[in-house]
Amino acid sequence: MALLPILRFPDVRLKKIAQPISCIDESIRRLVNDMAETMYEAPGIGLAATQVDVHKQLIIIDVSEDKSDLRVFINPRLEQCEGSQEGEEGCLSVPGVYEKVERSQRVTVHYLDIDGRQQSLVAEGLLAVCLQHELDHLNGKVFVDHLSLLKQARIRSKLAKKARVTA
Ligand code: NI
After folding, report:
1. CA triple 132-136-142, angle to 5 deg
2. Which residues sit opposite 108 in a β-bridge?
3. What is the gyration radius of the CA atoms in the chain, in angstroms?
4. 3-state helix, strand, coil in the chain (%, to 5)
């Protein structure tokens, strides 16, 4: 296993559209393991392959408190989004920034598991938020894109200042 570097907003590679995975082979299984190690180390509750500069339709999520519920979603598709909820979101690609984003309360996701079996899951609450957030990454979007242009500008200048300090 290995820790992978995480792309930081506003890196243009975060805008790439992820491609479907046609074959779940050893390299995909290794990527899942490396992404899990990277997510837990960060620490975070979700990570999309896009964030580690691999533009394939793969996300991992663990919303448990004790890192005991790793979920792997390959070629995920959201359907039946219902209701709405608003919660504060953060992102490993946008460190130190937390903002409220409106999301669906309940979603159904169709996907392949790590063994290539077709699965579907109905998710609510935090897991539903996390799925929508990570699916956005596969479509080249970060949560900042949901905010007003004024807030986006503030975040860009905050991150630019921070980059100058740490560079
Ligand atoms: Ni994110």
Report:
1. 115
2. 79, 122
3. 16
4. 35, 30, 35
What SS3 class is residue 5? coil
- For residues 38 and 128, is the Cβ–Cβ distance under 8 A? no
CA 1 to ligand 1 center in whole angstroms: 22
pLDDT recorded at residue 164:
84
What would the pLDDT profile of 34-56 be if each residue is shown by its tens digit? 999 999 999 999 999 999 999 99
Rounded distance between C-alpha atoms, residue 155 and residue 94, angstroms: 9
The mean of the pLDDT values for the chain is 96
Summarised one tens digit per residue, pLDDT across range 79-126 is 989 999 999 999 999 999 999 999 999 999 999 999 999 999 999 999
Active site residue 134: yes
What is the 13 CA–ligand 1 centroid distance (Å)? 13
Please check the confidence at residue 146 and state whether its pLDDT lies above 80: yes
- C-alpha of residue 2 to centroid of ligand 1, in Å: 20
Terminal-residue alpha carbon distance, the chain = 28
DSSP states of 105-138: SEEEEEEE-TTS-EEEEEEEHHHHHHHHHHHHHH
